[in-house]
Amino acid sequence: MSNKYCTYLTVYSGNKLPPFYIGFKNLKDLEKGYHGTVTSKIYKEIWLSELQNNPHLFKTRILTYHD
Questions:
Q1: DSSP states of the chain as a string?
Q2: pTM for the structure as a whole
Q3: Which pLDDT belongs to residue 62?
């Protein structure tokens, strides 16, 4: 069985980060609550803090599926 992948959009409804993040990931990870990995020096610590303290501010939607 092949892995399924997808492109996804994460929308952040807080006021400390940009509102949108688009990525590509294994579908299983998204089903487990993955919202993206930010590597920006400016936003990485804020992203991780917000994910831990305010996970309700993140909503992720799958845009397309891929084999």
A1: -PPPEEEEEEEE-SSSS-SEEEEEEEHHHHHTT-------TTTHHHHHHHHHH-GGGEEEEEEEEE-
A2: 0.84
A3: 94
**Cβ contacts of residue 59 below 8 Å, gap of 6+?**
10, 11, 13
User: What is the C-alpha R_g of the chain?
Assistant: 12
The tens digit of pLDDT for each residue in 41-54 reads: 999 999 999 999 99
Here the tokens at position 2 are: 């092949």
Location of structure tokens 């997808």: 6
Taking residue 24's Cβ as centre, other Cβ atoms within 10 Å add up to: 11
Counting Cα atoms < 13 Å in the Cβ hemisphere of 12 gives 21
